[in-house]
Amino acid sequence: MSILWSMLLFQALNLFAQQPGKTDAIYSGLSWYDQNGNVVSAHGGNIIKEGSRYYLFGESHSDTSNAFEGFNCYSSQDLYNWKFESVALPKQLNGKLGPNRVGERVKVMKNPSSGLFVMLMHVDTLGYKDQFVGYATSKNITGPYLFNGPLLFKGKAIKKWDMGTFQDDDGKGYLLTHGGIIYRLSDDYQSASELLNQNISTGFESPTLFKRSGIYYFIGSHLSSWEKNDNYYYTSSSLSGPWKFGGILAPKGKLTWNSQSTFVLEIPGKSDTTYMFMGDRWSYPKQHSAASYVWQPISFAADSISISTFLQAWKINQVSGKATVKALDYQMLLSNNKLLKYAGRWVDTTINESPVMRSIDSKSSLSVEFIGTQIGIYGLTLPDNGYARVSVSNKSGKILVNTLVDFYSKTPASQLIFLSPILKKSSYKLRLEVTGERPNWSDKKKTVYGSTANNISLSKIIIK
Ligand code: GAL
What we know:
4% helix, Jelly Rolls, mainly beta, 6-stranded mixed sheet, globular, single chain, 39 strands, Tachylectin-2, Chain A, 2 domains, 464 residues
């Protein structure tokens, strides 16, 4: 082999080895990593397809404040591996999306008549006292988007907070707001032209609408700030109603598998069409590192919808449009396995019939060395749990993954809450440290939400 060829081969192998965020399915409820190994931060967002790529838009967050940090754009061909494209709409130097403001629930649609990409969002103060629906436009899908201020209806701003969008098959665009209100957008999507549907439910936040076989499905959440609740839905054959109550989406008390709706992506294929529910698993205040997405295929029976079982991992065939469960064929180490080295104070116990190691000290830690390509953590999330810092390092001590994992949920749930990207086969070390911090916050009415303590309860480690 010539030197040139060896160099090219070396570079190609190196490139392969350096795909820091590589993954092979949709894993709900845990952090994902982009091509640079950074956490994918794109919440309250939506996805549109352009050519053969999907573009995900969402809120960029920090771990320290709720102030607007910009809206990120990522792209993907398979919906598993996400490439960071841009901060599509950055924090403005001043004004309504400037410093110390709120920008949420970004949605992007391509306007069929102008070809422009139109971005709609919720704009507000940090205390949620100056809300309106704003809009921005761009010639390119990845931006930069130009913020144009409030979207007007009859010359006035639409003073609503939670919002969403829907684009019908005929190219018409709609704005949805909390309560279930629907406005038809003007032909260029840059104003609202008609109030189509009045309030249908109190609360009904995170409005999410999609259509299948002539029926519109309208999903929303109860009003509980960043806390998850049992999201519910209505159906109708017309966007102006009447709307029929359909019930809740996931089993009662599962809190929509610990998420809040934001969008449903239709993935049509040759033999099937999958409707993918996208929900946010918020984690206040560590929304950058620890908030994640719950993406699940929706099941249909006549005109009712459900997500009756939680698919921990699943795949979508881009040609057929079919969703299939992905088996988690990993080696399993139960939490009391001798290979897990615990430091600090932990108790080996059983909670809700699940054997767990539970930390009782905010300085407790755990490490495990392994040879393989991937490692994951199953936790029993509980109402008095908090955050852990989790890192994976290689033989020379270089940290390849470093993130915060949220072990809290309002009702107990046993689930995979951390999964490393697929690494090249080698020896690695996983380290978990209890941080002593917990998700906890209060809303505008001073109602306190979140965890009451900062424990960790670990069920098992999985290795491949
Ligand atoms: C939620 C809403 C989020 C965010 C949050 C703030 O109910 O859906 O988008 O505004 O409240 O507490």
